[in-house]
Amino acid sequence: MNAPAATSAATPMSAFAARRARLCAAMAPGAVAILATAPEVARNSDADYPYRHDSHFYYLTGFTEPDSVLVLVAARAERAAQAILFCRQKNPEREIWDGLRHGPEGARAAFGFDAAFPIEELDTEMARLLANAPAAYYALGHSAALDLQMKTWLGAVRRQARAGVTAPSVAHDLFALVDEMRLFKDDSEQQTMLRAATISGHAHARAMRATRAGMHEYEIEAELLHEFRRNGAQFPAYTPIVASGANACILHYNANNARTRDGDLVLIDAGCELDSYAADITRTYPVNGRFSPAQRSLYELVLAAQDAAMDAVRPGRRYSDFHDAAVKVLAQGMLDLGLLPRAGFASVDDVIAERAHQQFYMHGTGHWLGLDVHDVGAYRDLAQDDKPSRLLQAGMVVTVEPGIYVRPAEGVPEQFWNIGIRIEDDVLLTPDGHTVLSAAAPKRIAEIEQLMRQP
Q: Is residue 102 annotated as part of the catalytic site, yes or no?
């Protein structure tokens, strides 16, 4: 299915407040949840890595400053739920150097929190907030620093036992609740992801047009990054893979320093991050603009596998179904093209049962996509004893990315050696099927070759 027109739609503050309310409603009455954002990380001497907030924290707050903590207090009979932010205080001198700080009062007003405090008051306030709370929700074992802080806060509460104050007696994993919420994208998230995928698709098209034999892979990468940034994306969503020739058979290749050669393919796995949401697209195309017969045969096989997988991406099908559909097509193609010996297998089902296809296709056919490239959410139905692959539902976003990677090996036809191909799209589940968010990236052989003939 074709993607609708892309528009920019920032998430309104009311949506973040609604998410906090949903989370509080899922917690035990009176329970307290604690969630810290990511810390700043030094790169060297007097420079930090570019700051990226924690995705869970952003999902619930929309707040992007470091040194921040969100505390939620679930409603109970005598009081309503509360959302409390701890953040850096205003500091005119540091703001000259580092930029705006909202400060507690400014953040409370702008982001809709019920209360806000300086981050320096976290320890004092947490001892108060946890007093008589029946349960605590936080990322169990995720952060050694937070685990230590929880120990300190609980100790402060327990020291009030003679006054009749009780500490939480139960701890829950906060991420188990938030992960499931994040798995389903609302309208504003869907529009942001469509825009991210569209920008990324145009970047892939730009890279194809710019490619010439003899260019370094990093020169092609520069075309991608330029297109990302000039269209408003803040970052690449991950380190781009620009892999030419045999490098495309390395799944996570990212040195991007080899020279492209006439007659080789280039595999680009790259997507931008726009307003914290990721795109993840892979395209493979010939350096000289024309697929060779061997390249064309393998490319058409991968494309057929993706088409088969796409047919299984719809509500009511299981997550594993689109992988199984792709594998069946790929395994049959491996037999037909002589990559696997027909004499060794009675049927394509035997190929799959013996995992012989994994010589050439060794990864899954997709993953969740959202605030993280490999986004959160369970892939299995954990409520059932046998934990089957979960059912797909409207609002989920998946990647669909079959591939084939042929390294030199005895018995493998030499014309296929050192060819790596992957085709990956971002796909939104809709009530009646799916929408391809990344339709702006060319992928049919005819359109790729036509695009690359253009000056």
A: no
